[in-house]
Amino acid sequence: MPVVVEPDHVIADALLRSLPPGTQAVPDTGRVHGWMSQHPDEYVMLIGPSVPFSDALEACDGLRLTRPAASVVLVRDEVSTDTFARAVAAGAREVVPSGSPENVAAAVDRAYRLFSALRGAASAGPNEGKVITVWSPKGGVGKTTMAVNLGLALAEKGARRVCLVDLDLAFGDVSITMQLFPTHSIEHAIGSEDAIDTALLDGLLTPHQDSMMVLAAPSHPDVRDRISATLISQVIRTLRQTFDFIVVDTAPALDEQTLTALDETDEICIVATLDVPTLKNVKVALETLDMLNIAPDHRHLLLNRADDEVGISADRVEGILGMRPEARIATSMDVAAATNAGKPIVVRNPHHPISLAVAEMASQLAGQRVAPPRGEAVAAPATAAPARGFWKRR
Ligand SMILES: Nc1ncnc2c1ncn2[C@@H]1O[C@H](COP(=O)(O)OP(=O)(O)O)[C@@H](O)[C@H]1O
Ligand SMILES: [Mg+2]
C-alpha cells in the first residue's frame, strides 16, 4: 500500500484521493525508514510538494539501497530539468507535477508493476504462501477466535505476511472480533472474478495494527449468494502470491463456498469441542471430507474448551474421531476478555498457556505435519473407544 509523506493536511488529502484505499500519510520523512522496515510489501512512497527538496533527496538516497524494489515518486510544484536530474540521481523513480492526480495514479501503478515484477523474479518457483483454513461444522466452537489468534501467532508481530480472510460470508465477525472498521470487503470484488490481481485485492484489505491484513466478510448477509466459487478461488490464489500465510475463517457449513476454500487449502484446522452434538457433526463431516478426498493428510484437530468435559473426556476424542487432537485449548475467561478488549490473547498475553498452545499449533500448521498419520491414530487401541459404541450410548 502506498505511503504519502506530506506535512500539509489539505495537500495530503488531495493526494490520498488519487491513491488506493488504505494508503497512509505521514507528515515528514523522519519516520520513513522505520515505516519501510515494518512494511516489506510497501512498494511506493510519494513525497509531497511541501517536503523540502533536500529531505526528499535524502529519503530517496536512503531507500535506494535498503529497498531497491520500492519506488520513490516525488510530487513537485515545479519540475525543472535540474529538479528532475537531481531527483533521479538520488534514486527517485519519477517526478510528477503537483495538481495532476492522474499522473500520480499512473506513477503509483507503474511502481506497483515494477515491484511485482522484481519480487516475482526473486521468488519464482514454489514460494507461494500457505493457506490454512479453520473450519468446524458447528457454530460457536471458537473458529473465529482461533483463526484470529492463529493468524496473529503466525504473523509474529509483522515478521511474516499474513492475511486473514473472513469466509463466514453471511455472519462473518472477524472485523468486530478485531475491532476493525473495514471500508471494503470481499463484496467489492464481485464482478471482477476475471480481473482479480494483487492490486485489486490490496485495495480491499484492512490492516490490523502492523501485524496482519484482513479481508472482511460482506456487511450484509444477502451478499453471500453473490460470492461465487470462482471468486473465492481467485481471491485465495491471488493472496498466495503476496502473503506467507493466508488464514481462512469459515462458516459452520460444507456449502459450495466452503468446499471451494477447502479445495484451495494446504492445511485444515478442524475445531471441535467436547459436547456430543459437536463431536457427532465433526465425525460426519470428516466422513464427508473423506468421500470428497479433501486434504486427507492435511487435517489437524484443535480441541477447544478441552477442559469442559460434558460427559466425554478429551482422551476419548481420538477414538471417536480417529484423529489425535494436536492442540488442546482450555476454557478461559481471558480469551473472551482479550477479544472484547480488541487485543486477542496471543497479543495481549503471549505467555498465557492458551497463547502458548495456539503458537504451538500455529507452528505445526506452518511447518511439516507432525501428527501421526490418520491410520495410526485410528488404530491406537489404548484410547480408541469404538465409535459405534460411543454413538450407541446416546
Ligand atoms: N477457549 C475459550 N475460552 C473461553 N471462551 C472462548 C474460548 N474459545 C472461544 N470462546 C468464546 O466463545 C464464543 C464463540 O467463539 P467464536 O470464535 O466466535 O466461535 P465460532 O467462530 O466457531 O462461531 C466467543 O464469545 C469466544 O470469545
Ligand atoms: Mg465465527
Sum this structure up briefly.
The protein has 394 residues and is of the alpha/beta class.
Distance from first to last alpha carbon: 55 Å
The backbone outline, from C-alpha atoms, is: elongated
Give the averaged pLDDT, no decimals: 85
Name the structural class: alpha/beta
Tally of alpha and pi helices: 17
Which CATH top level class of the largest domain fits?
A: Alpha Beta
Helix-strand string: EHEHEHEHEHEHEHHEEHEHEHEHEHHHHH
Biggest β-sheet, characterized?
A: 8 strands, mixed
CA radius of gyration: 24 Å
Which small-molecule species are bound to the chains here? adenosine-5'-diphosphate, magnesium ion
Say what the CATH topology of the largest domain is: Rossmann fold
Beta strand %: 15-25%
Helix content: 40-55%
Number of E-state strands: 13
How would you name the CATH homologous superfamily of the largest domain?
P-loop containing nucleotide triphosphate hydrolases
Low-confidence stretches: 368-394
Query: Total domains, how many?
Result: 2
Please give the CATH architecture of the largest domain: 3-Layer(aba) Sandwich
SSE order and pairing:
Blueprint (H helix, E strand, L loop, with lengths): L2 E3 L3 H9 L6 E3 L5 H7 L5 E4 L5 H14 L4 E6 L4 H10 L3 E4 L3 H22 L7 E6 L7 H13 L6 E6 L6 H4 L20 H5 L3 E3 L3 E4 L13 H14 L2 E6 L5 H8 L3 E6 L3 H16 L7 E6 L12 H5 L3 E5 L3 H8 L4 H4 L4 H14 L7 H6 L7 H7 L1
Parallel strand pairs: 1-2, 1-3, 3-4, 4-5, 6-10, 6-11, 7-9, 7-10, 11-12, 12-13
Antiparallel strand pairs: 8-9
The structure holds adenosine-5'-diphosphate and magnesium ion (MG).
